[in-house]
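We now fix the convention by which a protein and its fold are recorded. The integers have meaning only within a learned vocabulary of local backbone shapes. The record below shows the convention in full.
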Amino acid sequence: MDHFIGLDVSLASTAICVLNAHGKVAKETTASSEP
């Protein structure tokens, strides 16, 4: 099962998006970032 992960990193937080093999969002979340 293939998954693709995209990260959008900034100073305050990181947005995380996981897509399945069909391009549908499997999981979307954020995590805090520290410079």
